[in-house]
Amino acid sequence: MVKIVSEKAPAKVNLYLRVVGRRADGYHELDSILVPVSLYDDLAIELRPSAWRAVAIRCDRPGIPTDDRNLAVRAARGFLEEFGLGGEVSIELRKRIPAGAGLGGGSSDAAAVIRAMAALFRIDHRERLLKLAVGIGADVPFFIDPRPARIAGIGERVMPLDHLPRIDLVIAVPPVEVATAAIFRALQRAHWSGASDAGALDALGAGQLSQALLVNDLEAVAAARHPEIPRLKAILQNSGSRAVAMSGSGGAVFGIFDSATDAGRGADLVRRRDPAALVFAVHTVAALAEL
Q: Can you list the positions of beta strands (E) in 66-218?
């Protein structure tokens, strides 16, 4: 019998991203606050019983890979292998989150596939699912249950943050794709800012999102390689936001606004001033059910 499950895969922004060290295997250890936002991809995962394993994906956006370079494909294949299962898996992906922008779209798609397949096979082994997620990508564990969280390690340690106020944002994406691995390779120790103090979390809980809080240790490297990022950031700064930063390894930048109305106005201003940018007025969400 054919079974189909639909999932939403939200984007994220890093309110701050601090590098605290580097492991022997070359991966950087981070201290970051991640928040899911109301921009999301839609996925439909179809499962046909089979003694063998096959995974296929179709996407409505040209240029998105349909082989193992796609994290959603790797997630489906990895799930079948992890649990010793057979099946023909077909993934329909409606893509809204820009690729290579530091918004976690690929990682979120992968986590959505893991959630869907766990539901299809009625598997509830959280530790094994998280282990699978870590093997696919550093942001994937966060997206298994996307809600505001502080992450540590390379992203595998996820500590949910309760009662974080809703934040209205404008996300603006320049017409470049940023290679995350290249940004981390170019990062120098002098750019590391270390872990945040307790005051940062207190400020977040109180909704006090100042420019000083929005630290991103990767921004200088990404901006030097892609001048479109600082140019778009300056436009966003002059569009009514009270604080602006880059998300992840870039190139998306985001601005904090006092209300959804202000964010809508700010988004319109950015679109007029930079027609090449993709611009979204969004807000943070506390759980998938809010999408």
A: 87-94, 149-153, 157-160, 168-173
Q: Give the residue among 229, 245, 249 at the shortest CA–CA distance from 186.
A: 249
> What is the spatial distance between Cα 144 and Cα 66, in angstroms, rounded to a whole number?
22
Task: Please report, in angstroms and rounded to a whole number, the separation of the first and last CA atoms in the chain.
Answer: 29
Query: Is the full-model pTM beyond 0.90?
Result: yes
How buried is residue 3: exposed, middle or buried, by Cβ count under 10 Å (0-12/13-18/19+)? middle
Q: Is 65 helix (H, G, I), strand (E, B) or coil?
A: coil
- The number of angstroms, rounded, from the C-alpha of 170 to the middle of its chain's C-alpha atoms is 15
Catalytic residue among 31, 41, 109, 139: 139
Are the beta carbons of 288 and 41 closer than 8 angstroms? no
Beta strand pairing call for 53-59 and 87-94 = parallel
Domain segments of the chain: what residues? 3-160, 168-290
Give the CATH number of domain 3-160. Answer: 3.30.230.10
Catalytic residue, from 12, 217, 262, 274: name it.
12
User: Would the CATH topology of 3-160 be identical to that of 168-290?
Assistant: no
What is the distance between the alpha carbons of residues 279 and 269, in angstroms, rounded to a whole number? 10
Cα separation, 221 vs 226, whole angstroms:
9
Q: Does domain 168-290 have CATH number 3.60.15.10?
A: no
Q: Please state the three-class secondary structure of 87-113 as a single string.
A: EEEEEEEECCCCCCCCCCHHHHHHHHH
The answer to whether residue 268 is catalytic is no
| pLDDT tens digits along 200-249 | 888 888 888 899 999 999 999 999 999 999 999 999 999 999 999 999 99
Encode pLDDT of 102-155 as tens digits: 999 999 999 999 999 999 999 999 999 999 999 999 999 999 999 999 999 999
Active site annotation includes 258: no
